[in-house]
């Protein structure tokens, strides 16, 4: 799938911007950036399209990539010895991977695609580059992802879904 490019050659993020603006859940990603800041951020992120049933990441994986959900749904599962326990459904306008992004610890849950989705990935190395080159944008991204963690920790139903 080819990703439309903006005039500057950055991937087009309008779908993500719209999803964030229209998110109705408790764990929305509140990332208010100007058009030029979104365009800059697009240069540091990679679009990812996934089909229903695919695994985004498994519990225990050592990966700090942060993902923003543009469309579709993701199911967050904790895997114990008796099987899987669904913890949460994450939809458009939110994020997953925020726990590992901040804590540098293995993933606390498995995230599987519920319905076909489009995500935007922000690997730690690209976030570090963004922090060095555009610290004001990196700060906004970190605060928005941190707010998702805080909202999930306050809500006992979603507390364990911090991935």
* Main pleated-sheet profile: 6 strands, antiparallel
- Give the fraction of residues assigned to helices: 25-40%
Distance between the termini: 27 Å
Uncertain runs are none
What pattern of helices and strands is seen along the backbone? HHEEEEEHEHH
User: How many strand segments?
Assistant: 6
Class from helix and strand fractions: alpha+beta
Inertia-based shape? globular
Mean pLDDT rating = 89
CATH architecture: Sandwich
- Taking all Cα atoms into account, the compactness measure Rg is 15 Å
CATH H-level name... which superfamily? Jelly Rolls
State the CATH topology: Jelly Rolls
Total of helices? 5
Can you summarize this structure?
The mean pLDDT is 89. The protein is an alpha+beta fold and 163 residues long. It is built from five helices and six strands; from the N terminus they run ααβββββαβαα.
């Amino acid at each position: 799938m080819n990703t439309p490019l903006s005039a500057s050659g950055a991937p087009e993020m309008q779908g993500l911007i719209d999803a964030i603006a229209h998110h109705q859940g408790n764990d929305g990603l509140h990332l208010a950036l100007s058009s030029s800041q979104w365009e800059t951020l697009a240069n540091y992120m990679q679009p990812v399209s996934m089909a229903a049933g695919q695994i985004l990441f498994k519990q225990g994986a050592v990966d700090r990539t942060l993902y923003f959900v543009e469309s579709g749904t993701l199911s967050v599962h904790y895997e114990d010895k008796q099987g899987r326990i669904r913890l949460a459904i994450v939809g458009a306008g939110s994020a997953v991977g925020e726990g590992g992004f901040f804590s540098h610890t293995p993933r606390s849950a498995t995230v599987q695609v519920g319905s076909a989705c489009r995500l935007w990935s922000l690997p730690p190395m690209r976030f570090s580059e963004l922090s060095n080159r555009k610290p004001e944008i990196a700060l906004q991204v970190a605060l928005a992802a941190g707010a998702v963690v805080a909202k999930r920790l306050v809500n006992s139903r979603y507390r364990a879904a911090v991935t």
